[in-house]
């Protein structure tokens, strides 16, 4: 880029720095505060009374926290895997054809959960699942898994589709030319090249499922709290640094996953 | 071996390919017939969009003909998918598998054919040696140069010992020097392996230097099939003369017909004896073509007269542009010799002598 003095520079606009600093402060200060008070020795989330790991210990010994965490991971694992498989198939189907009338509509159809307000989906699922619960008598985790799978699909779909679109189709032609059957073309060429996209989609779906509150809150039966809904329930009653401690661990896990995601996508480019 | 000295490796019979429907339909190939002999270096030559790559893709099985048959050693392969055809392709973009090493790229076809491991290993070694890439066998294909990628693509396509090797403009991504080297390399590989090569290019020089025979294509049709000499010296139609090499075109009308030739009066009034392509009965207005190197300049006594308008020096030869009396331009090419610089100056009146048999009357 040429950088002559006459060029427009956003940095020299009045107020730019102020706005930028303000945005970052609003984004990160609350999180920093939350993390700091996770280590508070007292019961307050606002008054510092010394350093302690007691709230982490409390959370670790809280059976309901552990139970909710395990449930969250169970739902997220199953939902992410199923959603990624579905998203991979959807991505293959929407990129391996010549563009046709209605393709954009199909993209929109697949990405529906990104566009319809979550609360609408949540209410709709609540009503439908309530009927099914009455009819079948089943009230297990299945409903949550199905719901999570559905809204995870577009998040898994996007990186996989991006990967497929940047893939040279001649490679598949070349494999077929070298005596690979359609199945071998897929397993020996398409899948290995698609792998970084699939991993990225899987992790994104996992994080999105782990994080969900609205749909889970509406769909869950009694005693099916996930970690986020458990935390929400606790905050309504009593706020202690235990919530800060749980959130801090949650944050660390997310950062870890995003970091892995970053390295995988960087290695593949 | 049965005594069939000129068995056909590939026979294309009445093949047409139409893309799209209704008003959007494009006829990429229009009733094409061609027979390619065994162990031949055969080139499909033509401008982009002439259908040469489509024909190659039909032979490889990446597309299926709308009409017609494609025979491989006498057997119709048109309905077979690509993985069932003993035909391999070198792609314009090489299409090397980026997640596999050089050696794994080369062994891919053999592994897909289910060959035993020691046979695969031996063949990969042989191929690496053939294309002189032994040291780079464990490299990733992203870590090697364009010329090396080209060699890997060749080795990969040759490794399964296909009946026919298809090459889709494989040299177009290389720089001039490397391209020249690879032209010779390809000829050597064809000679050493004895595999039939079908080479697609838009580069006439590449076609002339490498091929045993050339098919010149335009707008979905094959216009002429013949040896490089035949294509260059005896073009069948005006397009071929124009597309391959440089040519002078003279408009005129038939004065008199003779056996295998005609006397043509060109627009400036001069009269030229020209040969006529076989099976062509010219009448009325015709075009006469003369290659620039088949004519020479002289002070007087030539068939055409004019004034020297430009002299262009090319190192190996010099082009003399002559403004003809009565209109039109004519180019004469002369090979440069060390002690013969010539004394012609721009503006000099000159006479052009057309060599015997050099002028030809062509069909449009």
TrEMBL record, chain A:
<protein>
    <recommendedName>
        <fullName>Spermidine/putrescine transport system permease protein PotC</fullName>
    </recommendedName>
</protein>
<keyword id="KW-1133">Transmembrane helix</keyword>
<keyword id="KW-0813">Transport</keyword>
<keyword id="KW-0812">Transmembrane</keyword>
<dbReference type="InterPro" id="IPR035906">
    <property type="entry name" value="MetI-like_sf"/>
</dbReference>
<feature type="domain" description="ABC transmembrane type-1">
    <location>
        <begin position="69"/>
        <end position="261"/>
    </location>
</feature>
<dbReference type="Pfam" id="PF00528">
    <property type="entry name" value="BPD_transp_1"/>
</dbReference>
<keyword id="KW-1003">Cell membrane</keyword>
<comment type="similarity">
    <text>Belongs to the binding-protein-dependent transport system permease family. CysTW subfamily.</text>
</comment>
<feature type="transmembrane region" description="Helical">
    <location>
        <begin position="114"/>
        <end position="132"/>
    </location>
</feature>
<feature type="transmembrane region" description="Helical">
    <location>
        <begin position="193"/>
        <end position="210"/>
    </location>
</feature>
<keyword id="KW-0472">Membrane</keyword>
<feature type="transmembrane region" description="Helical">
    <location>
        <begin position="15"/>
        <end position="39"/>
    </location>
</feature>
<dbReference type="InterPro" id="IPR051789">
    <property type="entry name" value="Bact_Polyamine_Transport"/>
</dbReference>
<feature type="transmembrane region" description="Helical">
    <location>
        <begin position="245"/>
        <end position="264"/>
    </location>
</feature>
<dbReference type="InterPro" id="IPR000515">
    <property type="entry name" value="MetI-like"/>
</dbReference>
<feature type="transmembrane region" description="Helical">
    <location>
        <begin position="73"/>
        <end position="93"/>
    </location>
</feature>
<feature type="transmembrane region" description="Helical">
    <location>
        <begin position="138"/>
        <end position="158"/>
    </location>
</feature>
<comment type="function">
    <text>Required for the activity of the bacterial periplasmic transport system of putrescine and spermidine.</text>
</comment>
<keyword id="KW-0997">Cell inner membrane</keyword>
